[in-house]
Amino acid sequence: MERLTSSPRLMIVSDLDDTMVDHHKDPENLALLRFNSLWEDAYRHDSLLVFSTGRTQSMYKKLRKEKPLLTPDVIVTSVGTEIAYGNSMVLDNNWIEIMNHKWDRGIVEEETSKFPELTLQSGTEQRPHKLSFFIDKSKVQEVTKELTQRLEKRGLDIKIIFSGGKAFDVIPKGGGKGQALAYLLKKLKTEGKLPINTLACGDSGNDTELFTIPNVYGAMVSNAQEELLEWHAANAKDNANIIHASERCAGAILQAIGHFKLGPNLSPRDVSDFLKYKADNVNPSHEVVKFFLFYERWRRGEVEICDTSYITSLKASCHPAAVFVHPSGAEKSLRDTIDELGKYNGDKKGKKFRVWTDQVLATDTTPGTWIVKLDKWEQTGDERKCCTTTVKFTLKEEEGFVWEHVQQTWSEATQVKDDNNWII
Ligand code: GLC
Ligand code: MG
């Protein structure tokens, strides 16, 4: 969040399972990839991405290995009982203090064990401020009432959340995704960085609270769970700031950005002709996002080999002396590298090949010179590689952005067996 010097244009606070990530109907993660390109293209530089999940940090890390998730600025885990910032996920200790208020894990454990209706979820789901169970839907009301009373008598102030038709979480009263969002908004406000717009997105019971925070737009995905829809029908059906989208998962986020007019919502992935497509932000990030999308299409065989117009224009926008430094350390002329792309047309056809960019950030170091830094991911089947890419551009009045230098290094997360297949 430090990277922003003023109010973010948009803050998206999204649940992960069955909201950002479609576990059922989108095996190629296309909706997520569409969201990703839009975010990196149009929002990353001046907006905030917050993931808010019921998962623990370690289960979140597991999901990141399985799905092409972007790196969020803030990650709220364990049903809003833990908040962490940045790449290295530094925990917010003030929030932990708040979670300790009128909370005693031992007592919750003792009292919940007296309910045969509650089946403990696996150990990986249990946290200092979250005890998670499964329950039969028909027992929820009765157990919630009885358990709340018992814990109150023992001096605790707790909250019970029912999600996904079966999950039963016990957390501190001051916790939960909604309170975590309210806390973040307050913190941002004191730093002078209150977002201009905030959009919350979710699908299940533990997301309900997100839709109760003032001045926050809400999108319930089309595939929302019954408990969330019931809550909405009973409590918020006339609230025009909340929509029940007609699109599933990440598609609903794009839809909501458009519906509430929060900014551009055309994903570059949905653009077929990059030459005609000019984003409204004058930012070289756009060139990089576009290039890697083209690169994916080219290798997937989705661009006709005869249609070299984009390649031609790309080459023309490279400085003749521009160099590409391959992650292996080898150096080549950037124009030659682009020429070489020719022979890779369609080489990944039918191979579940995807490319996405993450944390695309541009800085104009000296007037007219931009450095764009990003993580570039490439996936073929189940194998993934990531490299940190740095591109230097100059802005010329006549030609627009000119590629001056591209350098790539393998990121720590990448185990490179062979790099013959890595072109750019
Ligand atoms: C996630 C968590 C689980 C929790 C559920 C509902 O699935 O892994 O422990 O009960 O969200 O909040
Ligand atoms: Mg969910």
From TrEMBL:
Protein function: Catalyzes the final step of sucrose synthesis.
Enzyme Commission number(s): 3.1.3.24
Domain (Sucrose phosphatase-like) ranges: 9-261
A Gene Ontology molecular function term of the record: magnesium ion binding
Protein name stated in the entry: Sucrose-phosphatase
Listed pathway(s): Glycan biosynthesis; sucrose biosynthesis; sucrose from D-fructose 6-phosphate and UDP-alpha-D-glucose: step 2/2
Needed cofactors: Mg(2+)
GO BP annotations listed: sucrose biosynthetic process
Domain Sucrose-phosphatase C-terminal residues, every copy: 284-412
The organism's place on the tree of life at top rank: Eukaryota
The keyword Transferase belongs to this UniProt entry's keyword annotation: no
NCBIfam families attached to this UniProt entry: HAD-SF-IIB, SPP-subfamily, SPP_plant-cyano
Catalytic activity: sucrose 6(F)-phosphate + H2O = sucrose + phosphate
Assembly: Homodimer.
Annotated keywords: Hydrolase, Magnesium
Annotated family: Belongs to the sucrose phosphatase family.
Source organism of this protein record: Cardamine amara subsp. amara
